[in-house]
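For the sake of transparency, this paper describes our internal protein records without simplification. Such a record has a labelled line for the sequence and another for the backbone structure tokens. Nothing more is needed to write down the fold, since each code stands for a local backbone conformation. For reference, a complete record is included directly beneath this paragraph.
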Amino acid sequence: MVLLRHIPFLRSVFLHSVSAFGGPQGHFGMMMKTFVHQREYVTEKELMEYNSFCQLLPGASSTQVLTLIGFKRGGVYLAVLTLLIWILPACIVMSAFSFLLPYIDAKNSGAEIFRFIQPMAVGFLAYASSKSFHIAINNTITRTIFLISAIVTFLLFKSPW
């Protein structure tokens, strides 16, 4: 009975798990959109604190942040369910790809399928950066660090991918 009230949260976690892409930085922007602005499960400040804390820990920070949100909402039981719902879709898809790899490789069409992966990753990272910009960059020193980092990155790499 208690689980029924958490079904919308678990549904949000599932939708996030099948659509999340771009690594922890990309996941952060999507978490901000889904769990802060759309559903209001946590505040922006809480999500930033959870993310900062999980960056200190070894392991996958996106997994830890989502599990922590589940723990905050419903204790250990919901945290474990959140972890399983977050992990299972990726495990199923990766397992399927491992069995389909010889077929895809034989057809030699594998390169065409994945040609947009890098631009998509850059887009997700740009979205996450723009969403977290207003939260993280809030005084003169952080603006200065941001500006110098952007200039140095542009001068050294010239291309985002």
Q: What stands out?
A: The mean pLDDT is 84. The CA atoms of residues 57 and 64 lie 9 Å apart.
